[in-house]
Amino acid sequence: MEYTLSGMNDVSSPESATYPNTGLTSHLSDPPLKPLGEWGSALRQVFSFPALLLTLLITTVFVMGRNGLSDPDIWWHLRNAEYLLANHRFIRVDMYSFTLAGHPWVNPEWLGEIPYYLAWRAGGLVGIKLVMLVSLAVIFLGLLYLCNKSSGNPKAAALACYFAVFLAVVNFGPRTILFGYCFLVMLLIILERFRSCGKGPLWILPPLFCLWTNTHGSWLIGLVVFGLIVAAGFVEGRWGRIEARRWSAKQSRNLMLAMGGSLAAALVNPYGLGLILWSIEYPFRLKLNVEHVQEWTSVNFHDPRGKVALLLIIALLLGALLRDYRWQLTELVLVLFALYTGLTHIRFLFLAAILTAPLLAKFLDFVPPYQPEIDKHVLNALLMAGMTAFIFYGFPSSAQLQESIENEYPAEILPYLSSHPPSGPVLNDYLWGGYLGWEDRNFKCFIDSRVDIFEYAGVFKDYLDLVGIQNPNAVLDKYGIRYVLFPPTEELSYVLRRDPGWKVVYSGKISTLFERVGNPPPAKAGNSSGVQGM
Question: Across 356-496, where does the E strand assignment appear?
Fold first, then answer.
């Protein structure tokens, strides 16, 4: 059979061939069909290198936050939520201590306590840990989005976020402030979109601040950040390497309406103006708390957190100097605010990480950009599967979390207290008050980690005198203390062991219980220690 290929000798049309007696034409230049079509494109996105970086970020957060439940506030948070959901009433006075029973108290975190309590009801300690880790994941995914928008380089954005994780680890615990940082990232995303596009969903901000106000006192920090961003846009000019662009008249009007609406929304809370005033007064009245509670102290550049903070400062300065960077006024104001708060109080290193990471991502833009054409999707998929399996199988069990609690709190003494209930007021360690009250609802503590109410009333000052062995017998007599439950390594335990007026009735690895020999003197007028300790 003889046949010819049409166009074989026609160089002007090499793209087709005709098969004789069939009428079929083959288009030799057509691209090959993708084996999976749209599904293949979607899978390439799912298993792309940026997706691998995102998975690595989540894994890093998991590794840094998987161990323990080391936050003494979680216990009275659970108890608050339990009371609210059972009685449908907000707590307005202290119900947990004998030193301040009935004293007025504002609970600004009532909404943030509910997810932890519901998680505890559903999954116990594992549920609490899950809520904590999911909150952290949401924060850093939002931060990764901000860093990517800032730098346009997924690799640089991921590196900035990895650095932020190590800086923010100070707040890795079952804390309500994590919800506050979720709201902060949402605020920054909305304002970044408004700045870059000239418009954005500002209508979201009032309901966001309404939720934030009822979740955690950090809403005031969010309002300050909001105000700094808005104020920086009211000026225009260039001052050396600093420049500012003015908002348009329409943008200014919309921003002021959003801020006014946010302030009004903050008043929608069960305590009204009292919660607003509490949030404003809190950082200025707690002088003893700032001096003696570790997370409120300033950064020590000799410890790991301080070294990471120092590296952040150096990275920002070098990035600005080596690149001859021209600062936007908004960026400069936010960085200065972040460094001031983060270096003044360790607990705000997380805040500093969020506010500085987008700028750090800009300075890391020398990192080679992502090149989709050389991506290794199969390798990415294998690595992502490995990290996912590590998170799934490495998630702490209830037994592991319980063990971590028993290493920090006096769980060992609970059976003894159940069989030998104390017959008078108990002086407890500051970090143990919430835990003891959660484990036994009849327990009335001397103090717990709600530092505001105890410092305002002077109880925290007396506690510090006891811990510092400054006339301890006078303070013990003042409150009519019959029992002292303290770690055996504390100085007060050392003193009481050698005091003939006290005897050890329980001794364990974590805790020692002392009982006064003879009856204690009656508590002085003005103290509420007449309530039984157990």
Answer: 426-428, 483-486
**Cβ pair 426, 520 in contact under 8 A:** no
DSSP one-letter code for 26? E
Q: What is the pTM of this model?
A: 0.88
pLDDT at 228: 96
Residue 394 has pLDDT above 90, yes or no: yes
| DSSP bridge pairs for 355 | none
Contacts with 87 (C-beta within 8 Å, 6 or more apart), sequence order: none
* H-run or E-run covering 83: helix 73-87
Task: Read off the pLDDT of residues 474-526 as tens digits, 9 standing for 90 and up.
Answer: 999 999 999 999 999 999 999 999 999 999 999 999 999 999 998 888 877 45
* Alpha-carbon dihedral angle through residues 381, 150, 166, 341, given to the nearest 10 degrees: -160
User: Would the pLDDT of 254 be above 60?
Assistant: yes
Cα–Cα nearest to 108, from 171, 206, 176: 176
**Residue 364: φ, ψ to 5°:** -100, 15
* Per-residue tokens: 382: 């294998």
40 — pLDDT class (breaks 50, 70, 90): low
User: What are the angstrom distances between the C-alpha of 273 and each of 108, 451, 458?
Assistant: 12, 21, 24
381: tokens are 């998929």
Residue 263: per-residue pLDDT: 95
How far, in Å, CA of 229 to CA of 214, rounded? 23
**Three-class SS of residue 485?**
strand
87, exposed or middle or buried, with CB in 10 Å at 0-12, 13-18, 19+?
Answer: exposed
d(CA 172, CA 181): 12
Spell out the residues 6+ positions from residue 162 whose beta carbon is closer than 8 angstroms to its own.
56, 57, 60
How far apart CA 424 and CA 476 sit, in angstroms, is 12
Which residue from 260, 22, 60, 68 is spatially nearest to 162, judged by alpha carbons? 60
Token readout for 84 is 């609210």
The percentage of residues in the chain with a pLDDT greater than 90, rounded to a whole number, is 68
DSSP 68: -
Q: Are 477 and 471 in contact (CB under 8 A)?
A: no
Q: Do residues 514 and 502 touch, judged by C-beta distance below 8 A? A: yes
Rounded to 5°, angle at Cα 131 from 125 and 132: 90
Query: Pick the residue with more confidence: 29 or 169?
Result: 169
Residue 82 has pLDDT above 90, yes or no: yes
370-387 b/e (C-beta count within 10 Å ≥ 16 → b): beeeebebeebbebbeeb
